[in-house]
Design the sequence.
């Protein structure tokens, strides 16, 4: 064979190895995204609520999903105040696993009675490392509390004709709705009335919504549809949408 030419048989032999690598990498990515890698085999470090901008945050949050022991090791005060709650086995698409009762996160009163630990930790990261710094820089003071529009609700998706027969992430306590914020001085900021305003409050609302997207797979606000005209919807479900 002339110098510089590649044997066609050797070239073809390289394809199975490359394909195998792609299949392994793709499969590993899917398993990590779905939280299906056992803690003993997961190469990713646990979420540290004190650290901003965690790398591969989506996969690291997903690692909490099916493992209450990882949840317990992540719920570290003073960054979050939450208590584990008993499971409610899924029946007819409703119930929850590895849930908590969230009281506060990032120095913000954030009351959600039933919420998956994965979503609670995502809220804590967002509130501490995104919402609070933005409130201080844009509004001159921190957030004291959020206006909770609820988390668990045994129902289908609302406001979308295509998905109306599909269970909402609320049905498994994997979603949180937020209608607004209260500042340290008691002033209220409302998604319903201030989202579109060209004011510091309006710009703050739009900024914190954008900053939620790395932590939640679905982050919806008033620009999504009429059903979300007055609140943010955040969830850690299988789909991805930020609008």
Sequence:
């Amino acid at each position: 064979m002339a110098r510089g030419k590649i044997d066609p048989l050797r070239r073809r032999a390289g394809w199975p190895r490359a394909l195998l690598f792609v299949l392994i990498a793709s499969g590993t990515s899917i398993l990590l995204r779905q939280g299906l890698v056992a803690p003993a085999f997961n190469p990713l470090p646990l979420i540290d609520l004190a650290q901003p901008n965690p790398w591969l945050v989506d996969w690291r949050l997903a690692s909490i999903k099916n493992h209450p022991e990882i949840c317990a090791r992540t719920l570290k005060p003073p960054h979050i105040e939450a208590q584990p709650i008993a499971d409610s086995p899924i029946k007819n698409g409703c119930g929850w696993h590895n849930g908590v009762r969230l009281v506060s996160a990032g120095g913000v009163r954030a009351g959600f009675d039933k919420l998956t630990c994965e979503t609670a930790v995502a809220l804590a990261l967002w509130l501490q490392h995104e919402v609070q710094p933005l409130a201080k820089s844009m509004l001159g003071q921190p957030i004291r509390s959020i206006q909770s529009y609820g988390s668990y609700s045994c129902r289908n998706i609302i406001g979308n004709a295509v998905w109306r027969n599909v269970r909402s992430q609320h049905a498994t306590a994997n979603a949180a709705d937020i209608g607004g914020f209260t500042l340290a001085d008691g002033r209220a900021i409302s998604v319903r009335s201030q989202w579109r305003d060209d004011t510091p409050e309006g710009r703050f609302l739009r900024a914190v919504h954008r900053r939620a997207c790395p932590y939640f797979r679905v982050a919806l606000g008033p620009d999504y549809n009429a059903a979300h005209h007055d609140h943010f919807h955040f969830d850690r479900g299988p789909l991805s949408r930020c609008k």
User: Anything to note?
Assistant: The chain has six helices and eleven strands. The first strand starts at residue 80 and ends at 84. Residues 8 and 148 are 64 Å apart (CA to CA). Helices lie at 8-33, 57-62, 68-74, 117-139, 191-194, 200-212.
